[in-house]
Design brief:
alpha/beta, 8-stranded mixed sheet, 10 strands, 26% helix, globular, disordered N terminus
Length: 284
């Protein structure tokens, strides 16, 4: 599914080549380029100004859907939105999609200019049903409103600027808990009959389901594959996690942008020297 053309103003403008804004040699202490040549975004590797010049002329809109279901509190959602308002895509048009199963538990929100929010009613705290609902929202509304979309869990706080260096067709977040581990230790789904199965000896990274991003069409592609996967698993009397299906999808469909653990760090861990600036703090 292609993106609705009307959203892209000045779409004749040529996107800056990767080498114009990204330099992996600035961070020799980390993996800054994947085996399939996608950038891994670390502090110091990118020049946001080059990308700002391009995206500002396109006048893009970015969507941020936050999943606030189950036992979330007004305070946790308020902290998430307040911090996102301050640090997420500053200077750009942003629509916050507050996806919740309890619209009566929403806090009062006061947003900065260029920001707006919409409430998306979810049926309950069931991930498959919520993703099916999100698929419908993207197909019928969101894809006509934004150029890029992120889906994030509510239990995290923005700490520093989360900017356009993170934009891409398919964006994946490295999991802070597993970044320094070896692939054989990753908690992939190992049961061969599962649609999410990744065999020992396979796998690139372990990705965190707290943040996924990309164009609406790429988010839809993942949701469709996830829903098919859980249907296949039910047939085989299996129940793999949402994150397991995400990791299987990203193994086959390589992300075009990978976010370092700086973009989602767990502050309970001792911060290693590779982590220069924490963009988002995970609140498990």
């Amino acid at each position: 599914m292609s993106e609705p053309k009307k959203l892209w103003r000045n779409d004749h403008l040529e996107e800056p080549p990767l080498s114009a804004w990204f330099n992996p040699k600035k961070r020799p202490d980390v993996i800054a380029t994947t085996d399939w040549l996608a950038p891994v975004i670390w502090e110091g590797t990118y020049n946001r100004q080059v990308l700002d010049k391009y995206y500002k002329r396109l006048n893009i809109t970015i969507g941020l859907a936050v999943l606030a279901t189950g036992n979330f509190t007004k305070q946790s959602l308020k902290h998430f939105i307040k911090s996102a308002d301050k640090y997420f895509m500053v200077g750009y048009n942003v629509i916050f999609y507050i996806s919740t199963d309890n619209i009566h538990n929403l806090p009062y929100l006061e947003l900065s200019p260029l920001r707006s929010f919409k409430t998306l009613k979810l049926p309950d705290d069931c991930t498959p049903r919520n993703m099916k609902n999100m698929k419908s929202k993207i197909m019928h509304h969101i894809q006509y409103e934004v150029n890029f979309l992120f889906i994030m869990a509510v239990n995290q706080i923005f700490k520093k600027d989360f900017g356009v260096e993170t934009l891409g067709k398919s964006v994946a977040q490295l999991h802070a808990w597993w970044y320094l581990k070896k692939p054989k230790d990753f908690p992939y789904e190992r049961r061969a009959k599962s649609a999410a199965s990744i065999a020992f000896g396979e796998g690139d990274f372990y990705y965190h389901s707290a943040i996924i991003g990309g164009t609406p069409s790429n988010i839809l592609a993942f949701i469709n594959q996830y829903l098919k996967g859980i249907t296949d698993d039910i047939t085989n009397k299996l129940d793999s996690t949402y994150e397991s299906h995400l990791n299987k999808y990203l193994l086959i469909n390589k992300p075009t942008r990978v976010l370092s653990p700086e973009y989602n760090w767990d502050p309970k861990f001792k911060t290693p020297p590779q982590i220069k600036h924490i963009k988002i703090a995970w609140q498990p």
